[in-house]
Amino acid sequence: AKLCCVAPVQGKVDVVDTSGSVVKYVSNASVVTARWSGFSDACSGLRSYRVQLYVESSGSVVWESADLETSESSLALPASALELVSHGTTYAVAVWATSYSGRQTEAAANVTADLTPPVVAEVELSVPGLAATHVDTAICLPKGTTHVGLTWRRLVDEQSAVYTFALANETNGEVGDWVDVGLVPALKLAVGGLPVNGTMRFKVRSCNLVGMCSVSPWSAALDLSSVVQPSGGNATVYPSPGATEGFADAGAPLRGTWDGFVAGGDVASLTYEACLGTTPYGCQVDGFKSVDSFAATWTLGGTLPLQCGAMHYMLVRATNCAG
After folding, report:
1. How far apart (Å, rounded) are the C-alpha atoms in residues 74 and 11?
2. How far apart are CA 44 and CA 6, in angstroms?
3. CA 239, CA 249: separation in Å to the nearest integer?
4. CA dist., res. 215 & res. 108, Å (int)
5. If DSSP codes are grouped into helix, strand and coil, which group holds residue 45?
6. What confidence category does residue 135 fall into, taking pLDDT thresholds of 50, 70 and 90?
7. pLDDT tens, 200-211?
8. In this structure, what DSSP letter does residue 136 have?
9. Is the pLDDT of residue 303 over 80?
10. How does DSSP classify residue 65?
């Protein structure tokens, strides 16, 4: 009998995906292959290979193949084996080479299981000159706007890291296809390339290296109509009870109403603020305060710096959704 005293020469093992690229992370649904090369035995020659999947820290075997011919240089890991991996655990994909003398050599590549998608991002929609927002309210485009911005948090996946982002839009209720945008955390969209009317909103899909993805909620809706400054408007201050028009009693509330404002766009809404002053466009008595209706009331007493015998004026400011 020929006496062999050393184990086979250790080779190299990689775990690759369907494109042949080396991977370091797997999921329960991954399609990966163990690929090896470089094993040899000068004394007796190699008799067989065997592939194992085991927990790297403990050596606990999860799956093992049957003996393989030495002409083989790769083996796809079966789905039944990958279904057994646990999130965050690192596994060795090992190839054992056995010589005719019975000696063995192992080489392995490690992979870590990632079974969760990235954290969901929020898409923030911004228009120059207006505060950025992610709330579910319409944002109008002021006249002359050239671009709008989309921003989302650049996420780090717990295990395998975010690999790519994709963007989709919904225009007038119709959802478009996903468009890959790479790893950028923001985009600038030219207004000239958007539809000229209706509404549009956006969502982003974040995918990690093992192909697990999460989808954000829809962004705020963008009103695609070009909106100009509001116009018009009529304000009236009513006399207090028992007083003639144009006069008020300091002991009674002072009440004013308004109407006739034009929003500045077909679908633009208006919010209102009112103030009280002693000149037609001043707010010397009480500064602008938001009101929920088409009327404002002041109590003519207390801490307001009223001037007996002076004219008092109500000023109303109307603001549309374009700001």
Report:
1. 13
2. 10
3. 8
4. 36
5. coil
6. very low
7. 889 999 998 898
8. S
9. no
10. P
